[in-house]
Amino acid sequence: MASLNVRAALLSVSFLILALGIWEMATQPPEAQTGMTEYEMLMGGADQESRVPPPSAVIKLAWAELSDPFYDAGANDKGIGIQLGYSVYRVLTGYLAAMAIALPIGFLIGMSPLMYKALNPYIQVLRPISPLAWMPLALFIIQDSDASAIFVIFICSIWPMLLNTAFGVANVRQDWVNVARTHELGPLRTAITVILPAAAPTILTGMRISIGIAWLVIVAAEMLVGGTGIGYYVWNEWNNLDLASVIFSIVMIGVVGMVLDLALGKAQKMVEYKE
Amino acid sequence: MNKSFLEVDGLSKVYPDGQGGDLTVFEDIRFALEKGEFVCIIGHSGCGKSTILNVLAGLDEASSGNVVMNGKEVKGPGLERGVVFQNYSLLPWKTTLNNIVFAVRARWPKWSKEQVREHSERYLSMVGLDHALNRKPSQLSGGMRQRVSIARAFATQPELLLLDEPFGALDALTRGVIQDELVKIWEETRQTVFMITHDVDEAILLSDRIFLMSNGPNARIAESVKVDIPHPRARATIFQNPAYHKTRDYLVDFLVNRSGSALPEKDGSPKFVEPARGDATAASAATESEAESAARAVNA
Questions:
Q1: Which of B149, B169, B172 shows the shortest CA–CA distance to B90?
Q2: Does ipTM exceed 0.90?
Q3: Any idea of the CA torsion for A160, A163, A168, A170, to the nearest 10 degrees?
Q4: Which of A81, A240, B28, B163 could form a disulfide with A70 if both were Cys (CB 3.0 to 4.6 A apart)?
Q5: How many domains does chain B have?
Q6: Does B234 touch chain A (CB under 8 A)?
Q7: B87 CB near a chain A CB, below 8 Å?
Q8: Minimum-distance CB partner of A184 among B77, B87, B89
Q9: Residue numbers of the domain that contains B231
Q10: B149 shares its domain with B162
Q11: Does B189 share its domain with B136?
């Protein structure tokens, strides 16, 4: 018997073929039962009803797009690579800015019960706000659509990182803190050599949640601000009624999201430790 | 006043009892340690042994009283006092070697990398762990972890070593082996050691004096028992010494029959007794079988 991985892969592929097969069958144009009506002949035999494109059409389009992902033929015709590049750039910029704020403040809150109590009410009120609700305010204040999208990413990815850092830092085993104390480590060295590695798995979990949320939000944000990015691309293709492109970009959003998550997963593995 | 290496004066610890009142765990703890002494402290659970040790370590604060070491008052933790915790307290993301390096570097920040490494490896080989330098604590058995922890404490060469029931979580066989190793290291280094244990045999094997605590609340260190057995000692032969049995009977009798009511001298210092000299009258009060079953209970 083949190994579990091989069997799982075979099963995965057969599910894919099955699903694509059903999709392909379901989207065939109906065979003309009778001769074409006068109208149909006038319309070149086109079917009145618009249909979801079959997977074969989507794959053909994907092939064409992916073989030249970085072409740039004007504002409304850019390659998928360029569009995804814009989105990834915005996500990473907002995400890194959130990290620069969330990690130090998370440390502070985690180490000081006073700061935790003082800041907690604000966090609890700000956290449940949909990041897109900030958009009008951001557009008004920043007056730049690109920077506003980055701000929205910043505001949505800050909370999981902040809370997980605070939680991880606050729950470092007292024994390890005592080890630092009996070795006369100063506060900064304790933070770097004991608390940071001890809390790192929890912090990375927060960062992983954040990158997932940021990638969800960027699509919606770009639909609003327009111009560039994968979210804008989806909406633009919808306006063009090019459903094959819409389906293709949906798949690409999934793939890029998975890659981002895998990267953070790798980082998480690196800082994990067993007790 | 004579100047001992470590002087503990009038220590007490009071906690709120949760019903609006106060609970005094121990009070008026007075004792002194001399340089190079190995002292164990035995008492029933709840008498505050661990708290006393944590106060000496500077990790906990007493409600009253003070601790003076080398003429300086102990306030907060310090590198001149090393601690071995019962649960090892190794940093799990560091390898065995790096756990020691961490401590050595904190102790001697100016040392070169090679010097730190060489020193750390020497202490790891003292506890027989040269083969496990690059393993993480999670890949070590409980006994090996405690060896690392002991090596870490000895490697920083503190003036006072505090051991908080270091073998409590180990099986009997492993415990015996590490006890022998501890005896060996101690013979080499002659550190001043203050150790908590529940094991009467362990206390006799290791210590010069044994402090006996009365039961809490309001626990005291009632007696200081001299262990009159010459060094070097070995687990396999120590029971051949007549002083061993006299001391053991005396300790077991205290723990079984007298720990509820025992009191120190009027001035608060522990009563000094030498069971091996035959002045331990109380030992005869317990019959042999009672003493044996009690010893098992204490060991368990």
A1: B149
A2: no
A3: 180
A4: A81
A5: 2
A6: no
A7: yes
A8: B77
A9: 6-80+158-299
A10: no
A11: no
